[in-house]
Design goal:
With 171 residues, the chain is α+β, with helices and mostly antiparallel strands. It is 57% helix and 23% strand. It is built from 6 helices and 4 strands; from the N terminus they run H-H-H-H-H-H-E-E-E-E. It starts with a helix and ends with a strand.
Length: 171
C-alpha cells in the first residue's frame, strides 16, 4: 500500500468517525428535548391548551359582527348548561347577579337542572344594545321533540372586550 493510499484510508476513517460522532450528538439533543417535553406536568399542559383554546375563541369572536358575537356568547353559555358544564356557565355570570341569585355553584346547578330542559334549543328573537350591554330575548325549547315546553328568557350580555363578557338572565 502506498503512502497516499494509507493517508486516504486514514482520512476516510476519520471522516466516518466524525459523521458518527455528529450524528450521536444530534440524537442526544433530540432525546433531551423529548425527555424535557415528557416531564411537563399535566397542569402545565392544561394551561398551554387553555391558552390555545382562548386564542381560538378570540379569533372566532373577532370574525363576527356585533349581533353574531353577542349571540355567540349566549350560545356558549347555553351550550355549557346543555352539556352540564355548569362551572363554565357559572364563571361567566355577572358578579352582582351571581351574588344575589346564585351565591354558590351548587345553587346554580340545581336551578339549571330544574328549569332548563335536558337538550336545549335556543332561538334568538330580538336584541337591543345600550353601550356595552346587550339584551337578547330568547326562546329556549326542549330540542328532543318529546316535549313542547318552551321558556322565554331575557339574557343580558355585558361585553368588556372580545371574548370577555358577563351574562345574567331573567329567572
Amino acid at each position: 500500500m502506498s503512502r497516499n493510499q494509507k493517508l486516504l484510508l486514514v482520512v476516510s476513517l476519520a471522516v466516518i468517525v466524525i459523521v458518527f460522532i455528529i450524528n450521536g450528538v444530534i440524537d442526544n439533543r433530540n432525546k433531551r428535548q423529548f425527555d424535557t417535553d415528557e416531564t411537563m406536568s399535566e397542569e402545565e399542559a392544561a394551561n398551554i391548551l387553555a391558552k390555545k383554546d382562548e386564542a381560538i375563541e378570540i379569533n372566532i369572536a373577532k370574525g363576527k359582527n356585533e349581533r353574531e358575537r353577542i349571540e355567540y356568547y349566549a350560545q356558549k353559555f347555553f351550550k355549557s348548561i346543555a352539556t352540564k358544564d355548569y362551572e363554565a356557565a357559572y364563571k361567566v355570570l355577572n358578579g352582582v347577579y351571581k351574588e344575589k341569585y346564585f351565591p354558590t355553584l351548587q345553587i346554580f346547578t340545581d336551578y339549571c337542572e330544574v328549569y332548563f330542559p335536558g337538550t336545549l334549543g335556543v332561538k334568538y328573537t330580538n336584541i337591543e344594545r345600550n353601550g356595552t350591554t346587550y339584551v337578547i330575548w330568547v326562546t329556549i325549547s326542549n330540542s328532543t321533540g318529546y316535549s313542547k315546553s318552551t321558556i322565554e328568557k331575557q339574557v343580558v350580555v355585558k361585553e368588556n372586550g372580545i371574548n370577555d363578557y358577563e351574562i345574567s338572565f331573567s329567572k
